[in-house]
Known about the structure:
Helices cover 39% and strands 21% of the residues. It is of the alpha+beta class. It starts with a helix and ends with a helix.
Amino acid sequence: MAGKKQSLESLRKEIDSIDDQIHDLLMRRTTVVEGVRDLKEGQRIKIRPSREAEILYRLVGRHKGSFPKRELSRIWRELIMATLTFEGPFTVAATTEGEGGYMDLARDQYGCYTDLKEFPSARRVVEAVRDGAATVGIAPIPERDDPDPWWRHLVSENPDMPKVIARLPVAGQPNGRARDMEALVICQVAVEETGRDRSLVAFDADEEIGAAHLDGALKEAELPSEYIHVWHDQNRPEVWLHLIEVKGYLAPDDKRLASLADKVGVNVRRVMSLGGYAEPLTEDELKTQ
């Protein structure tokens, strides 16, 4: 019995030593992040969603052992957000739709202690981010049968209009109120290429473009798509907005956007990038080895 007790004490001391090393590295990492903050001086919004995704891809890819990858991802999400908060003000806007599930998704992604503001609708979330009342906003994933989709408000020439920067959840199915729910994150920053991206494109025309015809035009423009949603303004019969999710990264000035308007072959007024996101981690990637 004495031997077992001594062995237990020895293991606990080893754990304490490891904890101290982790803590030392955490403080060291914070010092480095402060250097990054100084280099970002003058940038109003310092969040870099593509860089955050690349961090998780790398860590999950190199991870070994029985420690769960979901919890590993959650630790790093909290770590990223803790350092972002001392780089400057950071507020998250989330809609109260979905019985609070979107607020849970917001906390999972942006930290337990990050300032979270509630809004009664996704449209109000868009307005809060546009007006600077929130740094990022959380809105429901677009649904094909939504009669008044929030994403239509992003189709604007206003330079302050936010773009899509992420898709939630990023690390597997959440629990509680957010179970089986998905959302998009919007912000006034641009995403960068990670190598495993999706892009959102919208264009308006004076008539609805059939799915088969649009799919053919997208292929001709070398824009393979997975999701197509159409919204028609009943008060403006000439306005038909089409939302497309494209595989891969698409810069706002990508020549394929202009090409798409020609390929569609009808009166297309404008084609706009609405941002995009790095693909969430898959269930296979999150399996414990």
